[in-house]
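Hello Y.,

Per our agreement to keep a running log of every chain we model this quarter, I'm adding this entry. I've kept the format consistent with earlier entries: sequence first, then predicted structure.
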Amino acid sequence: MFVLVAEIDLHIPAAGSLKEKRSVVTSIVRILDQMHGVAASEVDDHDLWQRARIGIAVVGGDVAHVQSVMDKVDRTVWSRPEIDVLDFRRSWWEEN
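Predicted structure for the entry above:
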């Protein structure tokens, strides 16, 4: 089993309230959750209007597939015009 995790820091410049921010974040998380083998959730910056941090995990049986799915996640997030991606960090999860 291979698990690739990502942490994405976002800026949502048009968000003038937590409600507007959550609308954008919820939309992104739903799209990512619908991808095969992907789990996504807002993990930090809950009380900031224009900032969000999303955590993502991709699980699969081989490295190439997991990397391919995360590449699709990456392209999906960067394609959203209503957000600015401040950071997109990836790392392999290893069981101790």
